[in-house]
Amino acid sequence: MTTLFTLQIHYEQDVVQARQQTRELAAHLGFDIQDQTRLATAVSEIVRNAFQYAQGGTVQFDVEESPQILLIQVQDQGRGIPHLSDVLAGRYQSSTGIGLGIVGTRRLMDTFDIASTEQGTTVRLGKTLPTRSPPLTDAQLQQIRAAVAGRSPQNPYDEIQRQNQELLRAMAELRQREEELTYLNRELEDTNRGVIALYAELDEKASSLQQANELKTRFLSNMSHEFRTPLNSILSLSRMLLALIDGELSLEQEKQVTFIQKAASGLSELVNDLLDLAKVEAGKTEVRPSSFAVSDLFATLRGMLRPLLVQGASVSLVFVEPEGLPLLYSDEGKIAQILRNFISNALKFTERGEVRVTAEQVGQMIHLSVSDTGIGVAAADQERIFEDFVQIESPLQKRVKGTGLGLPLSRRLAELMGGSVSVQSELGQGATFSVCIPIVYPQAADLPGSLQPITALHPARLPILAIEDHIETLFIYEKHLQASRYQLIAARTLAQARQALEQLRPAAIVLDILLEGQNGWTFLRELKGDEATRDIPVLVATVVDNETQALALGADGFLIKPVDQLPLLAKLNGLISQGEAQKLLLIDDDPAYRYVIKQLLVDVPLQLLEAASGRDGLAAAERERPTAILLDLTMPELSGFDALEQLRHNPVTQSIPVIIHSSTQLDVETQSHLAQQGVAVLPKEKTSQAAAASHLRAALAKAGLVLDA
User: Cα torsion for 665, 670, 672, 674, to the nearest 10°?
Assistant: First the structure.
């Protein structure tokens, strides 16, 4: 740090001198005229405050190295600034000015710091030296200090004249910028007029293209229909001739009729593909969603496509049996058509090896893939093959016939169902064609059977009424509440919600405020204003962060979409339990396991009850009526299965959530049977303590326990 000079402020002309010497010092340090003016103005504002409110002070000018910064410190011994926070926030109105001197100074400087107490005020200002010139050496700084210190102050009137010149120069610069802005605005207006004209021309061309596309689609549709009748006649007549209905054919005649039949079959296939494309482009193809299992779809395709395999061929068609996939609610016929295209292409272009069909769940999508060991597709052609009539030249192309419309049609059908198709391949290394389809068709007009507004109520599960107009969100809610103590009752409209409330009393309501064409806020007021429903907890789940408004109108909880499983369960558990005492009953004959469970739940706010046998557990469950039961299956005398059956047949205990915590390996049928009784299964796996605690807490959340105090 190098100190250049220090100036004492005792008289009003010292304020003028501080401004003059600041400008002079800034000029020596290489600042341009604008920065000189900024520095002089900033220093004069702070020095004037020190003189006016503290009757004087000290100004010190320093240069700090690495990087070089001009530091100016103005210090006084006044009574301090009583409203400093308001001054810095721009809210203070001074009785002697407009109260913006300090705020304006802070904007002019690179660094600004102020400290004020009853013993005085210290203001530190900083401005980085220009980077265009090399750093100043100690010798140069000493020369600048001598030059500034030896210069006699100017007359105050000269300073006023200089300030006026600076003001005139600033006004001239502002006028020039205003003229430049006016010119730019004029150019922008001209550009906008050109853009508007261009848009009008583009709209006209787009309209012409739309008309041409409609004409093409209409032509393809009409042509396809017109071609079908004569083609069917040709195929029928050729089959009759080959069947020798009207007499024998010579070998040459039979060969000729066979050629006619093959040509007609190829043309018929082309016409059918053209008609399908035309219907999709015209928007006349309807998606008819229904619930179906992927395994059933694979079984149908396996039987349908087996004839395509040549007897003794070196290519095998393998369908990998899907496991753990949910039911699809989409158009089964169109998905089958896409997979048929993929599989038939794979069989055509695979000389040896296998064609493998697989399915997996990725989020809320089902990923169906057809992989082969064929000739593959070059990277440059992987987008072209989805264009109409495109067929890639290959050694096998001459032996296999196609229309070049199967893959484009598959892409359009997938997009129609809210999905997409893709390909991964290397030339000579085979290819994998995939279609990704939503588990629930996004534009479904009707709900799947499991999401109907009113379904049979399970005695061991609490009904949760979800009012949501997006079927995908309802489907997600259903998945979140699976294997929990809650049962989803879906309503897509407020009318369905009112109908449901007439037939049942839900444990809680999950309400989307932004319902299409309906006012969720009004319905929330209606719920909280009606004596029959005001005590039902309402959880608002929406995409807009309006929690304050929701709570003000009576909502009991609020979540931002998308909603994850554990936050949803935690909210529902807290709203429904309303702070009631929680009890967890451990029924396990192994004291070591009971000890482990207690250690895993040491920080959970609940009372742990223990039973060392099935009979003791039944008695404790009826006596204590716990919030949930953790049950082992393998116990002497009374097994866990028998204990569970008695719990479910006892009116006192049938609604208590039960979690199976056992080392017994359960088959799929047994797990399905337990799930129908509202029972969660938590295996005693040998995992880390953290993983075991996480799995146990998730199971308890599904059972309705509040895990955080």
Answer: -90
